[in-house]
Structure formats: C-alpha cells, structure tokens
Amino acid sequence: MKQVENFDPRDKMFHFVLDQYSCYRRKTGICSLDDITIQELFNCESYIGECNESSIKYCRGMAKLFLDNKFSTPADIYLNKKCGHYCCSGGQHRVCVVAHLLKKGAQVKLNANFTEQEGSCRYCLIQEDYAQKEKRLSILVRILKIGEYKTIRNARQNYEEHECMYIL
C-alpha cells in the first residue's frame, strides 16, 4: 500500500457499493453535487453525522469540509489492473465528492492509501459469473427467458441495485 497525498479520481472508472439507502444519486437519479456551485457549497453547513448517506445534505456537507480543508482522512483505493477499474474499501463518498469538486475547479486534496491488484474488480468478476451461467443455458431457455434464465437475470438485477460503476 502506497500513501498518495493528492489522488485525482477524475476520469477514472470506480466500482462503488452504493444503493438507494447510501447514495442520493442512486435514490433519485440526480447527484446532489451536480447542480450546485462552489460558492453555494462554501455557504453550506457540514451535516456529516447529522443525516443519512442518501440525504441531499450528506455529500454537500462533506464537500464543505473538503473546501474548508477539514477532511484529511485517507480513502483506501485499489486499482484492479486486469479490468482497469478502481474500487474503495473505505472512502467511496470522499472519492466521489472530491472528483465533483475538482471538476468544478476547486482546489481540494484527497489523501489515499493506494494499492494495485493484478485481477479484476468485484463488479467485473460477478458480471463474468452471470455471463458464464447464462452461456451454459440452452438456447431455448435463453430465447424464452424462462426458468434458470429468469433466476440469473433477477440475481443480476438485485446485485446492480446495490453496486454500480461510475466514471468520475
């Protein structure tokens, strides 16, 4: 693990474990940081600990902490070399918030504990597993979308409700 003092998450594909209960964007389809200016964020209050992660205030409050240089806890970030995707074992909200702030032109810094791994990310491994299971089904079952095909599709859909890929 390598310590990186100014990790830039922009334009990187991240696998996040976020759902409607832990992310405003996953709950509403709109990121709470998309339609707000840096100046408006400077005027926000810090709500961390006072609201749940899917609240519109959560990431805005975290953004305020970064803008005020009051957030230095490093995110744990992994690069999966086989698929080229990044993932976090801690700090996925921090990574996303900093990417949004940097895109808006803010001068913020994300500290990271960074590790490179040889394999694929969890998202890709699970998607490969679902694809292999579907491939083993008969053509008739796949065409009619019945039985085991429906079971696999439902499992995949349930998985995608809780985990996602974002290009920051």
What does this structure look like?
With 168 residues, the chain is of the alpha/beta class. It has one domain. 41% of the residues lie in helices and 17% in strands. It contains seven helices and six strands, in the order E-E-H-H-H-E-E-H-E-H-H-H-E. It has helices at residues 24-28, 38-42, 56-67, 92-103, 122-135, 139-144, 148-162, and strands spanning 2-4, 13-16, 75-80, 85-90, 112-117, 164-167. A six-stranded mixed β-sheet has the order 1-5-3-4-2-6. The radius of gyration is 19 Å and the shape is globular. The two termini are 22 Å apart. The model has no long low-confidence stretch (mean pLDDT 94).
Strand order of the largest sheet: 1-5-3-4-2-6
- In terms of structural class, how would the helical and strand content be classed? alpha/beta
Low-pLDDT segments? none
Q: Which H/E pattern describes the elements?
A: EEHHHEEHEHHHE
Please outline the major beta sheet: 6 strands, mixed
Can you give the mean pLDDT?
94
- How widely separated are the two ends? 22 Å
Strand content: 15-25%
The number of strands is 6
Rounded radius of gyration (Å): 19 Å
How many discrete domains? 1
Shape: globular
* Structure annotation, total helices: 7
- The amount of helix comes to 40-55%
